[in-house]
């Protein structure tokens, strides 16, 4: 969480930083700030989104060729002007922005207070900054050395960018646990939490690793470890176009990303799945096929929507591969003492590839000998780099805070892995395998069909937008889809929603049902369909409002429902990629009907890099 941007070079820094911060707002938008080298350090910061800072500083002299900027997701200290980054050191000579959490900041703060320091914010960042300045003064060393010494005392996660008034062309950066990309231009350098702030200027980037420190001037990028040894920067070519991170005529990124799904699922299958030839080409998986096939168990580790993808995959892997699968919340798994044996297979699922809990959980499992396979969207992200192998989801940049296209791409990848392993293992018949390849191949087209038949969902949103609670129910493959539908609604519309296995309803939640409660059934035609229809009847008998996602032509379910959303017929293994789409749209349109900021819902951030 938190977005950071930096620039040093011949261009005007402020517009680059502001544009970059707008692209990174998905990482947090509690406050915004910039520090510019303009004949001395000039710091401007304000509670709220980037546009609010822009408005507040109209007319100021913002001319500078070097600067840093920050968009915050608050951890230590409420969202406010005083807690906004950049922070300035006691002398006023240093300015710093930070993404992460300094866990031992209290102890460091006490040490500094004992030395006479006072603080102007509640943040851990101001503590670290003054700690660095104290070391510089005390050890009579340069800033680079002071940063190195300070970071050896720090526990927690960080990316920091520092400006020093006395070195006006230099930015010092360091990373542990939070992402940092440096764009390499001709006589200029760009910094960002991801590559989006630098896309129109350069395609050459360096992903900084943990425990690395960078000293950056317009002409030079020096990379070192904390032991002061130089490291040769590994410059990579970005495969990302500007259009991919713009709204392209849609009102919101979320809507654009929902409508991109036929293409993103197609991109995910392309080059891998050949339904005619009966092949799935995934080199990372092929390399570990033997170990996956013979694993005692597979553990899926993820958070949020990615965790829901893991739940769907659990059903699919158990069905097709006959391997025991467990699905774990990364945040729980990392703090338990889980039994991991050498040869256990971990599948880490993450859109951003930067989720702190997932990252630490897989590092723990890796240290115990587990094989780590990453199913990740962001190329070059931390989880992708720490995994032994895996498969990218190729959904393209997902900017809306609510995950949509990443979820369906995760399902597409996980289904391909299960099919590949099941086929090699012989746990699926040839006929079923060929049938499922064909079904998977048809998903992009069927998602496009679903989107075309979704006009009524906007009207449903108007009808149900004032409900206080929603219940989402589904069985089997559609149970995790119910959870995902409920999560989408909560995030985007702030309406309380719960997802449940439809049969569990009788064990408690049915007490909530009355004429005011909308109950969304994910009721596509599958093995469990008759049972779900019975559950619908039970809700109807208690006057609940039944809204159902049903298969085209399912008259019985339609007759039991107050409202329906339709998807085309599909095998139950691929059905979640279809049935989730109307639920994404329902959440989106309810959020819009309530005039909420659906791309940046309150309190959330896209990439959760704190635990
Ligand atoms: O980047 P990740 O997939 O690791 O993120 C996991 C969750 O933070 C994420 O899915 C979150 O729940 C989304 N806001 C859901 O829409």
Structure notes:
Helix 3 (105-114) packs across helix 4 (124-139), helix 7 (261-269) runs antiparallel to helix 16 (443-452) and helix 14 (405-425) runs antiparallel to helix 21 (576-593). The longest helix has 21 residues, at 405-425. By secondary structure, the protein is α/β, with parallel strands linked by helices. The mean pLDDT is 94. Strand 16 (273-274) and strand 17 (279-280) form a beta hairpin. It contains 21 helices and 27 strands. It has an 8-stranded antiparallel sheet, covered by helices on one side. The protein folds into 3 domains: 3-243, Glutamine Phosphoribosylpyrophosphate, subunit 1, domain 1; 247-441, Rossmann fold, CATH 3.40.50; 454-611, Rossmann fold (3-Layer(aba) Sandwich). It binds 5-amino-5-deoxy-1-O-phosphono-D-mannitol. 5-amino-5-deoxy-1-O-phosphono-D-mannitol (M6R) binds at residues 303-306, 350-352, 355, 358, 401-403, 487, 491, 604, 607-608.
Secondary structure layout plus pairing:
Elements: E1 3-8, H1 13-23, E2 31-37, E3 41-47, H2 50-56, E4 66-72, E5 87-88, E6 94-102, H3 105-114, H4 124-139, H5 143-153, E7 156-164, E8 171-176, E9 181-184, E10 189-192, E11 204-207, E12 212-216, E13 221-225, E14 230-231, E15 235-237, H6 253-259, H7 261-269, E16 273-274, E17 279-280, H8 283-287, H9 289-293, E18 297-302, H10 304-321, E19 324-329, H11 330-333, E20 345-350, H12 356-367, E21 371-376, H13 382-386, E22 389-392, H14 405-425, H15 430-441, H16 443-452, H17 456-464, E23 469-474, H18 479-493, E24 496-501, E25 518-523, H19 529-541, E26 545-551, H20 555-560, E27 563-567, H21 576-593
Parallel strand pairs: 18-19, 18-20, 20-21, 21-22, 23-24, 23-25, 25-26, 26-27
Antiparallel strand pairs: 1-4, 1-10, 2-3, 2-4, 5-6, 6-7, 7-8, 8-12, 9-10, 9-11, 11-15, 12-13, 13-14, 16-17
Helix pairs in contact: 3-4, 4-5, 7-14, 7-16, 10-14, 10-18, 14-15, 14-21, 16-21, 17-21, 18-21
Bound molecules: 5-amino-5-deoxy-1-O-phosphono-D-mannitol.
């Amino acid at each position: 969480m938190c977005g950071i941007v930096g620039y040093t070079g011949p261009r005007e820094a402020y517009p680059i930083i502001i544009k970059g911060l707008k692209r990174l707002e998905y990482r947090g938008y509690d406050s915004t700030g910039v520090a510019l080298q303009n004949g001395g350090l000039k710091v401007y910061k304000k509670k709220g989104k980037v546009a609010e800072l822009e408005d507040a500083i109209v007319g100021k002299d913002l001319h500078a060729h070097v600067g840093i900027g920050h968009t915050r997701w608050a951890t230590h200290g409420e969202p406010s002007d005083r807690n906004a980054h950049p922070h300035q050191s006691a002398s006023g000579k240093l300015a710093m922005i930070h993404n992460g959490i300094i866990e031992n900041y209290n102890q460091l703060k006490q040490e500094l207070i004992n030395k006479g320091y006072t603080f102007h914010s509640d943040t851990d960042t101001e503590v670290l900054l003054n700690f660095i300045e104290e070391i510089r003064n005390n050890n009579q060393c340069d800033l680079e050395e002071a940063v190195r010494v300070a970071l050896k005392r720090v526990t927690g996660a960080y990316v920091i960018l520092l400006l020093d008034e006395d070195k006006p062309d230099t930015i010092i950066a360091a990373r542990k646990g939070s992402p940092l990309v440096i764009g390499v231009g001709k006589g200029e350098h760009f910094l960002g939490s991801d590559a989006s702030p630098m896309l129109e200027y350069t395609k050459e980037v360096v992903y900084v690793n943990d425990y690395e420190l960078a000293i950056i001037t317009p002409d030079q990028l020096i990379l070192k470890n904390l032991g002061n040894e130089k490291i040769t920067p590994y410059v990579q070519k970005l495969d990302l176009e500007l259009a991919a991170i713009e709204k392209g005529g849609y009102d919101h990124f979320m809507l654009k990303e929902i409508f991109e799904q036929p293409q993103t699922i197609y991109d995910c299958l392309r080059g891998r799945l050949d339904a005619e030839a009966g092949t799935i080409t995934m080199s990372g998986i092929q390399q570990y096929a033997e170990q996956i096939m013979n694993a005692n168990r597979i553990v899926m580790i993820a958070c949020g929507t990615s965790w829901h993808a893991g739940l769907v995959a659990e059903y699919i892997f158990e069905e097709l591969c006959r391997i025991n699968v467990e699905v774990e919340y990364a945040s729980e798994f990392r703090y338990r003492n889980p039994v991991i044996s050498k040869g256990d297979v971990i599948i880490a699922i993450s859109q951003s590839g930067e989720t702190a809990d997932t990252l630490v959980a897989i590092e723990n499992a890796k240290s115990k000998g587990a094989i780590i396979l990453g199913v990740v969207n962001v190329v070059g992200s931390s989880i992708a780099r720490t995994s032994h192998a895996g498969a990218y989801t190729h959904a393209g940049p997902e900017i809306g805070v609510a995950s949509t296209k990443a979820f369906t791409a995760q399902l597409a990848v996980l289904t391909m892995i299960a099919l590949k392993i099941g086929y090699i293992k012989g746990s699926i018949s040839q006929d079923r395998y060929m049938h499922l390849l064909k079904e998977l191949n048809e998903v992009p087209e069927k998602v496009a069909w679903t989107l075309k038949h979704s006009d009524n969902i906007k009207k449903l949103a108007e009808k149900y937008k004032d409900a206080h609670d929603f219940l989402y129910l589904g069985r089997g493959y559609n149970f995790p889809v119910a959870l995902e539908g409920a999560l989408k609604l909560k995030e985007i519309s702030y309406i309380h929603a719960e997802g449940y296995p439809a049969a569990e309803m009788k064990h408690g939640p049915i007490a909530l049902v009355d004429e005011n409660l909308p109950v969304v059934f994910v009721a596509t035609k599958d093995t469990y369909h008759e049972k779900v229809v019975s559950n619908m009847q039970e809700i109807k008998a208690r006057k609940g409002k039944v809204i159902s996602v049903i298969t085209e032509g399912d008259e019985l379910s339609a007759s039991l429902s107050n409202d329906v959303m339709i998807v085309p017929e599909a095998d139950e293994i691929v059905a979640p990629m279809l049935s989730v789409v109307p639920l994404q749209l329902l959440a989106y349109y309810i959020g819009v009907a309530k005039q909420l900021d659906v791309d940046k819902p309150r309190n959330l951030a896209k990439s959760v890099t704190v635990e």
